[in-house]
Amino acid sequence: QVQLVESGGGLVQAGGSLRLSCAASGRTFSNYAMGWFRQAPRKEREFVAAISRGGGARNYANAVKGRFTISRDNAKSTVYLEMNSLKPEDTAVYYCAGRTTDSYDYWGQGTQVTVSS
Asked: Which of 58, 65, 100, 107 is nearest to 85 (CA)?
């Protein structure tokens, strides 16, 4: 199986930017479609963005479309989430996840993103 480790979270003011990284190890990274999810306090985990195995297809939640960009570097076994124009409502723990089937089977431990107003 693949192991996933997120990094890059932190505290940022509204309007600022952060780039999250998720490093994979253990299996061939390019075999996995990847996604980012987030969970805010007292809320359900929600989808943020996803990218296909080769990086040619991407999709986003409406709440982040136009502000966030997902990308991947298969040579580095890493997926990224570039977050711009951050809002307080983007505050959450962000998780990366990988899948080879229809469901995400592999998850990282999460990284906290806090956006102050």
From this structure: 65
